[in-house]
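Hey, I'm writing a tutorial for new members on how sequence and structure tokens pair up, and I'd like a real worked example in the thread rather than a made-up one. If someone can provide the structure for the chain below, I'll link this post from the tutorial.
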Amino acid sequence: MNPTHNSPTQAAIKTYQNFYQHWMQNAGLEMSALPDATSKLQAVAQPLPLALIAYYHCAGTSPINTAYNELLLPGDLYVEQEHLIFMHENQGVVDWGIHLQDLDQDDPIVWQRNNDDGAWYAEDHHLSSFLMACWYWAEFGEDKTEDFFKLG
């Protein structure tokens, strides 16, 4: 699925590039790291969503990705309970993932799993705005992430 020029994902990519350029100079992950993740996903026959690829490309090696919650590197992504797990909460209480049926979307909805009961809940936020809000929270430690969620 290729996004159109004015799609939310294209806007997210441009926002990533502009927003993170100041904060994370040279923190992009080399695209050569992505085939490892893609080969792991061949079992479910799905590519990575464009919003996740864009984030990895712009800020994938930044220490901010593990300063609070842990964004998994592409080679560490895995599938459990029909979800691609891409982030762990810092105390192991929850994980975040993308439902496998949504992996073909450029900017899918993020799901949260409560690790006590294994139940999944939709975050009702697109991946691009969720990642930006996580970055903002880890960088500034303020609960003012609502503006980031409005992006996607």
